[in-house]
Design brief:
homodimer, 252 residues, five-stranded parallel sheet, 7 helices, 13 strands, 27% helix
């Protein structure tokens, strides 16, 4: 018998963002693997085992789930957001690359709403034009490539979504990122700090790149930095919307 | 009475990707506005009116829906994919910016799975690291900014997702894009052509940037071009997976 592995995106937290495809994959799994806070979002079910692991253990978690599936079981790994965006899908296929026996498995990825999209939906339309997503984590890559990408993204005048903007191990990285972006982007560039989007303690804070305050950032925060076209749009009775229009350079 | 406007992402096509949040917004709307092929995906319901419009009419569609909502109605605009990613959210907030009376409306954006994510899920983990999304349409922006962004994305060694890679009005733009990217990225860079993902006629074609064939591209195609780290991973009984690993420059 051939086993199956589903790599499931739970979305940003609220079950209202969980797709039927992901729900079916959860329902069909005999065993769930995941980082504990993500597993805790999934209601328990009789006969479905759970294997929680720590944040940094993506690769060993992927291997454990693949081993389990290779025994003929129907196994799922849960990720927050979209498993394809700074989450578990890459770790799974890295493990598959290293062990040919796992190349026979039936692997399905169930996409989900990632933090950048949930934040954008609350803010208005900050990703309304070309954009990029950069993780500030330097656990697995040199900081030099992060800087190279920040610079390229600024020179290309992209809207930039920053994932993993801070952690205890690198509290100053976000300051370095803002400083680098300020050498290219204007001080008036709109910036949004979207914390815990889709959860009870959600907060959205708007400012400009010139005044951007790194103390607002933790691991639950997604930061969106506008392009030269991004602006705030007034909203009666609320903080402004953030808009990156579809046209570029129209009034210049 | 204050009206409401929901800007809804239907995902890539299959209702299995429609979130409960988006489904609720559809169910709660008295009137639906949208490009006809997207409206056609939504089952009809007694008492819910539909207002179909053409592809290029985003701005007038947004204004019509806002006018309707301002009369006190509960109105929805439907988008394919995610309304925040090359879809209707930007057009809506552009219209709000231009008319202060619409700044009092209750506007909700319901995010969805965008083509890039659905394609990535089928392919493996091509977006497993930093990436950017660029629309090749030059309807509303000069081609020069597209070229500037392609060059910046290549110089930053991002994975690149290309939306709107071709149309009757610009059949050669994708060739120009490949030619530009070939001046920076290696010929062996993996490329995926993902057509009609999540629909019955879905096709996934893998090749390298050196051999990338623009004739595979139409408006239903999303193109993903790897970074220097992206590679193909063998799969028994199927075409390879596409993987951008989490680590960068580890073996160099």
């Amino acid at each position: 018998m051939t086993g199956r592995l589903a790599v499931i995106g739970l979305g940003p937290g609220d079950p209202r963002y969980l797709t039927p495809d992901a729900q079916d994959a959860l329902d069909g799994a005999e065993a769930l693997y995941g980082y504990k806070p993500y597993l805790d979002r999934v209601p328990t079910r009789d006969g479905q085992n759970r294997h929680a692991s720590d944040n940094r253990e993506e690769r060993s978690r992927a291997a454990a789930a693949l081993r389990h599936a290779a025994q003929g079981a129907s196994v799922a790994i849960v990720s927050g957001g979209d498993p394809g965006v700074f989450a578990m899908a890459a770790a799974v296929f890295e493990a598959v690359e290293d062990d040919p026996q796992w190349q026979t498995l039936d692997i399905q990825v169930a996409p989900g709403v990632t933090a950048m999209q949930a934040a954008a939906a609350r803010l208005g339309a900050p990703l309304g034009h070309d954009f990029c997503a950069i993780s500030l984590s330097d656990n697995l890559k040199p900081w030099a490539i992060v800087e190279r990408r920040l610079r390229a993204a600024a020179e290309g005048d992209f809207v930039i979504a920053l994932y993993n903007p801070a952690s205890k191990a690198r509290p100053t990285r976000i300051n370095q990122a803002f400083d680098l972006l300020r050498t290219v982007k204007a001080p008036v560039t709109p910036v949004a700090f979207a914390r815990a989007v889709g959860r009870a303690d959600e907060t959205l804070t708007l400012m400009t790149l010139g005044e951007a305050d790194a103390s607002l950032v933790d691991m639950a925060t997604l930061v969106i930095i506008g392009s030269s076209e991004t602006r705030f749009v007034a909203r009666d009775g609320g903080q402004p919307w953030m808009l990156t229009p579809r046209a570029y350079g129209v009034c210049r």
